[in-house]
Prior knowledge:
Layout: H1 5-10, H2 15-18, E1 21-26, E2 32-37, E3 58-59, E4 67-69, E5 74-76, E6 83-87, E7 101-109, E8 120-124, E9 131-136, E10 139-140, E11 145-149, E12 155-159, E13 165-167, E14 174-184, E15 188-190, E16 193-195, E17 197-208
Parallel strand pairs: 7-17
Antiparallel strand pairs: 1-2, 2-5, 3-6, 4-5, 6-7, 8-9, 9-10, 9-13, 11-12, 11-14, 14-17, 15-16
Amino acid sequence: MRLSLFAATLLMIPSTAYAHEIWIERDGTGAARIYLGEPGEAPPPGGDPEFAKLQKPKLLGADTSPVIRRAGFLEVAVPPGDVRLSDDAVFGPWGPKDKREGVIYYARAGRQEATAALPFELAPVATGASRFVLTRDRQPLPNTAVAMFAPDRTKTELRTDASGVVEVPATRAGRYLLVAAARDDRSATLPGGKVDVVHHITTTSFVLP
């Protein structure tokens, strides 16, 4: 059976890393809830087994807010507007000594701002839009796989067009999550040490009223 390109990309990452994403959930202007887990599955009681590795995500514009550890997620008060974070310290490097690999996670909640502020991000083309542009270092990524998880956790595989834009078929009320992945075959230094390959995983969540 042929794998989808999105699944094939994630299979380049070890099982614990590729099966996990970081995502943010927010209701209205309330606190942000930060999760580490598998968005296609209901979280187990107390959170994902790897949740303890989610320690200090870097929130844009909310670095001074205290982060509270709840059962299965982190909670932090954030200003009004979209919420963004990155985290390069969840999983340490893996692989043989001459080909070490690492992963950096990015996450966003909301679609008020039609701009990208993270190095790897899915941003709406307009406020509240159902079309999103996938950018890497502010440059659109054409023909790239994007996974959509619906409010009932069902997964739909999508793809950006020649302009890096993906149309999201969100029709039911509830929370949606978009996921994309990319790979850099170049050396870098992460908190866990030097690596030769960096995997990037980005998520964007939004609520359809």
